[in-house]
Amino acid sequence: MITDEIWEQIESALTKAKHSRAGAPPAMSDREFMEAVLYLNRTGCPWRDLPPELGYWHAVYMRFRRWQERGVWKRLWQEMQGGHFAGARELMMDSTTVRAHQHAAGAPKKTLPIRLSDALEGD
How many domains does the chain have? Predict the structure, then answer.
């Protein structure tokens, strides 16, 4: 979960990245939304499996997509490259901390289709 101290720093960067406050205010605060997005990132679960206490999955998904289309995520990343977050650029991770998608393992191997002419030649 995002601590109050960290949120103060993120909030200032987010305010700059969002540029405008056009439209109706969302039912979910920016902090709640970021908690939901970070939960999805941490667990690797599908959007539909977002716990109800973190918000309605479709509302979180649509807001995520709107931010993506408007470039908010890109500007937020750029804004967080300096100041309080400069150390985050040096963050290292190895394969033991990266979770594969749940469908990444156990799938049957794909095989090439056998052509009828190849099958007949084998007789």
Answer: 1
